[in-house]
Structure formats: structure tokens, C-alpha cells
């Protein structure tokens, strides 16, 4: 991961999200949660709605698997809003669960 830093560097939302997924895979829940949060914040700061949606959805899955249904639902709602702002016309299948 340290060798690959993406097109714009290690602090891009894409790189932060990949890092969060790696931490999840390795079983490091604390680092994974921080990575998802960092990826979401970075995408929001750049108004990159697609990456914000993808990061929120990934975080939602992470929290649902960890047993936090309420947290997962909030993050999926945020993902749906971001997908909509990005211009997704068709309803995302995860959005159907919470609306």
C-alpha cells in the first residue's frame, strides 16, 4: 500500500478507502473505522459525490457486519444521498432497505 499512492497521492479518498478495506480484511477494526471516516471526509471536502457514496456504502457494510445496524443504516442513507447528488437515476439496491 505504501508503494501505491494513487494518481494524486496517499491521502486521496480512493487510497484511504482501499486502506480501510485492507484493515478490515486484516481484522483491525479500529483502523478500518478510521479509514472509512477519513475516506468519507476527504471525498466530501473535494465534493466528490461518487467516492463519498462508495466510501459511505463500504462503511455501512463494515458497521452492519460489526453488529451496528443503526450506524449502518445512517451511513447507507448518506450513501444514497451522495449517489443521488452524483446523478444516479436508478435507485441503488441498498437504498430500498432504508426508505
Q: What features would you describe in this structure?
A:
With 99 residues, this protein is mainly α. The chain has a single domain (13-98), classed as Serine Threonine Protein Phosphatase 5, Tetratricopeptide repeat (Alpha Horseshoe). It contains five helices and no strands. The longest helix is centred in the C-terminal third of the chain and has 18 residues, at 69-86. The termini are far apart.
Question: How would you concisely characterize the structure shown here?
Answer:
By secondary structure, the chain is mainly α. It has five helices and no strands.
H and E order:
HHHHH
Radius of gyration: 13 Å
Task: Give the total of domains.
Answer: 1
CATH architecture designation:
Alpha Horseshoe
Give the helices and strands, then pairings.
Blueprint: H1 13-26, H2 29-45, H3 49-65, H4 69-86, H5 93-98
Features:
99 residues; mainly alpha; Serine Threonine Protein Phosphatase 5, Tetratricopeptide repeat; 73% helix; 0% strand; flat
